[in-house]
Amino acid sequence: xxxxxxxxxxxxxxxxxxxxxxxxxxxxxxxxxxxxxxxxxxxxxxxxxxxxxxxxxxxxxxxxxxxxxxxxxxxxxxxxxxxxxxxxxxxxxxxxxxxxxxxxxxxxxxxxxxxxxxxxxxxxxxxxxxxxxxxxxxxxxxxxxxxxxxxxxxxxxxxxxxxxxxxxxxxxxxxxxxxxxxxxxxxxxxxxxxxxxxxxxxxxxxxxxxxxxxxxxxxxxxxxxxxxxxxxxxxxxxxxxxxxxxxxxxxxxxxxxxxxxxxxxxxxxxxxxxxxxxxxxxxxxxxxxxxxxxxxxxxxxxxxxxxxxxxxxxxxxxxxxxxxxxxxxxxxxxxxxxxxxxxxxxxxxxxxxxxxxxxxxxxxxxxxxxxxxxxxxxxxxxxxxxxxxxxxxxx
Length: 395
Description:
This protein has 395 residues and is an alpha/beta fold. 27% of the residues lie in helices and 26% in strands. It has two domains: 11-223, Spore Coat Polysaccharide Biosynthesis Protein SpsA, Chain A (Alpha-Beta Complex); 238-385, no CATH class. GO terms for molecular function: transferase activity.
């Protein structure tokens, strides 16, 4: 970390409210400590282990009041920052008078997810080298000008205590004549859980505050979007998954023609932690679109529920064999971000004694290597996980 200085020094203030010191130490702290650039990094962890603050907004507003730099970043405790220089570069757009808030990931009013980042195992979001206007931003990381957030602080509404406070702020800055934007910021979100408690309450409150803007698209769903009568019928609710299953099964059939390995239908972001507990995992994200690999190519070592995970990124599947050259036989390998056209190249590293499995969800593919079929997660034995014409994977 660069030496401290006054508010006029070139730098950045990073504010995080935390309730798990171990998670913060491994993720956010380590990324701040690893910075070797010339910027002054004003790191402000706000301790909420004793529930001093009743909302994220209250805690983050407190942190912003302590910030020494004009650029203030609010970020979750389980985030790794691959490039602090990139944060400052992107944050410079806040000086132009157009943007009121920028973030690592957001959703446009048409429902497009924008801003490239690694979420657990998978790269998500459309590539956005420059800010793209969105309707709302995710809370994982967003940034503002210090003078603005002091004048217009984050909401401390109890219904928005831990959800949708960045969503609300995104909508509010529009009323100030500014815009909310998502931009590639090179971060890994090593989330270990998905907190859904009172999310519906938060979304309901946002809908009440901004009724004329509904439907409001967020990373956690659409606020004020009515469901069709057909979708509400008992038959569709009970069997709607079968249409998705059939579509994925057809894709699985095409995939098996190109790569002769078993196939499972699974969202690996949700189910990666079901893999054999404790076994080291080597994760490789293929980022052909760009936006993440430029800063996330080098191996990053984190843990998930005690499992050591080494994460890296490449631009093409052709680079994967070099990454896997040093992988030990005791490690599980997970290659994420593939499509049908990649499977021919994937055949170059799916030979040998290591067993391989192809996963599909929803249209993106992934390859799992090194886990015998008799040790796969029990969840992959359910009907929805087995493509039409495929064999049962779990005994």
